[in-house]
Amino acid sequence: MKAWRILIAAVACLGPALQYGLMVYDETLVSATVKSVEFFSYFTILSNMLAAGALTAPLVAPASAFAAWAERSGPRASIATYLTITAVVYHTLLAWQWHPQGLRLVSDTILHTITPAAYLVDLALRGGQGRPRWIVAAKAMAFPALFGLWTLLHGALSGFYPYPFMNVAKRGYPAVVLTMVEMSLFFALVAVVFIGLSRVRAKVALGKPAPISA
């Protein structure tokens, strides 16, 4: 099991690192700075980095507060929600719009397919510590909400929008805000599903009889 955890943590770290290298390669200092801001303006990158940190911290710093947080059922359900949305939105709305090759295809596959799938498998195998409360679904909304606000603010100042469905310049604020509301409901629904599954898993684990000692 530890070998599996090391493997998926390494892969989760590789995705954002490779994508960042591809974005700033051959850029000047000024353009690399702009690209760096854009890099951290993608929900895909943020969700993958959060997953990478949550998978790595318990291995390299198990006594840290972040590692303890990352192993709890609530945060694990929230991260699973973010990665699920990342994968679903990409494969249903965005993948057909470009055709990456070489290392870009590798990065794209890790970020949108391998890491989300591996995290969900890890969640199914290991679950999380404790039984998450339903309020976790509401708390999980803070991350995408902050991302949405940042996207609107950054876009208004720079003209950069990471995703076409959030492009105010082309769609206008009413349409974009409506899309954000719809996606918020999707986030909430997925979060509730993962919390419900985590609660069932925790209940089953508690109900298992303790092994009989000799």
How would you summarize the topology of this molecule?
Layout: H1 2-24, H2 29-39, H3 43-60, H4 65-70, H5 73-94, H6 102-126, H7 136-140, H8 142-158, H9 168-171, H10 173-207
Helix pairs in contact: 1-2, 1-3, 1-6, 3-5, 3-6, 5-6, 5-10
Taking the alpha carbons of the first and last residues, their distance comes to 27 Å
What is the share of helical residues?
Answer: over 70%
Number of helices: 10
Low-confidence stretches: none
Q: How many β strands by DSSP? A: 0
Whole-number radius of gyration? 19 Å
Shape: globular
The amount of beta strand, in percent, is: under 5%
Domains, number: 1
Which structural class should the secondary elements be placed in? mainly alpha
Average predicted local confidence, pLDDT: 93
- The arrangement of helices and strands along the chain is HHHHHHHHHH
Major sheet details: none
Descriptive key words:
214 residues; mainly alpha; 10 helices; 78% helix
Explain what this protein looks like in three dimensions.
This protein is an all-alpha fold and 214 residues long. It has one domain. 78% of the residues lie in helices and 0% in strands. Helix 1 crosses helix 3 (43-60). It is globular, with a radius of gyration of 19 Å.
